[in-house]
Amino acid sequence: MTRKLMNNLSVDCVVFGFDGEQLNVLLVERTLISPETQEVIFSDLTLTGYHIYEDEDLDSAAARIVKDLTGLENIVLEQFYSFGALDRLLHPNDQAWLEQFGDVFSNRVVTVGYYSLLPSTNVKIILKGRNVSWYKVSEVKGLAYDHDHVLQKALEHLRYKFWHEPIGFELLPMKFTLSQMQKLYEAVLGTQFDKRNFRKKVSQMNYVVALNERQTGVAHKPAQLFMFSRDVYEKTRKERFDFFV
Amino acid sequence: MTRKLMNNLSVDCVVFGFDGEQLNVLLVERTLISPETQEVIFSDLTLTGYHIYEDEDLDSAAARIVKDLTGLENIVLEQFYSFGALDRLLHPNDQAWLEQFGDVFSNRVVTVGYYSLLPSTNVKIILKGRNVSWYKVSEVKGLAYDHDHVLQKALEHLRYKFWHEPIGFELLPMKFTLSQMQKLYEAVLGTQFDKRNFRKKVSQMNYVVALNERQTGVAHKPAQLFMFSRDVYEKTRKERFDFFV
DNA sequence: TCACTAAAGTGTATATAGTACACATTTTAA
DNA sequence: TTAAAATGTGTACTATATACACTTTAGTGA
Q: Which residue of chain B is at minimal alpha-carbon distance from A81?
């Protein structure tokens, strides 16, 4: 018994990772090869995504896609926006690519965008038969379909959340240094922070807890390690009246 | 030539209005009448929404729905979330209702949620053959389908935005008093603000401009009128590093 | 026209958070 | 032993947030 795909509904996952310096995103190579000549007709990159099954809800579809790709379960997955422009699959390359699949997929596909934050970029990527790898977000352009736009929207949402609440600990190792945390914020938000002021801010967050442990194997004074405590966070989280002036 | 509807994709619009005291939402009466006995089988309320046409993008579908309903164009319409739970249409009432339409609509419909903010609640509602009216958000429950959930999500998004940036002027008359503005914020956010502190905050927003005009026809000292200047807002808007402690 | 009603409008003192800024400390590696 | 590299720390100043109560003004009706 085979599950049936919905021909006009897909989920795209923008999988973010952080390597200590830069914000990265997982992309899949899409190479169209002529069946006759075996020549490469074109080759480009897409976000990771797939159509959803008829018996699958949106969140499950997103989780499935990330799991098929990375083997990881229970990672952060947040729906951020849906895309339904009429021309989102109409570029000649996209049409040529989709032709391979006959009429399994419609020309009119609405896709629901999710982003996910991975514990680190040291994740084994397993997508049989396709090249998947990390790319620096700052250097990505010319993606297939409307994926430049989708990535842009995902970034906007990520930045908005970073500005307004303390998230993104999923992008750090479980035990991290304050410098790593600062670099993450700087990479995502595209800003620089003063070290002392950043630490002052962090010291007010009692859900960032100091461990009795230091870095090892570095050729300089080893930094203290910290951990994010979701427990403390959920308990002390509060809304604030902070609309901008 | 008739346009074709997509049987598994819809848009739902959560239309918010403010009456000076309470936050309201537009709901449509859904009454199922037995074709034989003409008895009312059930009657309940839904958000305003409809399936999308094959040649229509998501934003246009949302705009169409609000326009059909209120006659208004160019109002704020923001996509906030999409809903695709498998059981969202499976309540017996929902099934009975949908049976009327044969197989025009699938049992598996993903809906894209938009909310819109109306200039005031003094809007002529025109939806031929259906009762549409305003309900206090705080008193709404037991909506059809998963619309309680959709409304809840819309509210969360609205509140989140209200906390973090100054929006919602679309819910006020073009010329408004500071007390009206304060009441709006209190209604949406479910808080109370100190009048002097609220005004101090507002006086820092140079996009809330004082007019050379006062209220008329009130049995007390008439208040000064203010206007929102989108121009000034766009120019002075800036991001801020304000994640919570 | 006078007294009442109802909401508008206004200031200060205190506490908290944000910003700007520079040097000594600690470890490893050569 | 020294050099290199990143850690870790404090203060003065400015800006914003918060708590709090009385006077002013126009309309209404006796």
A: B81
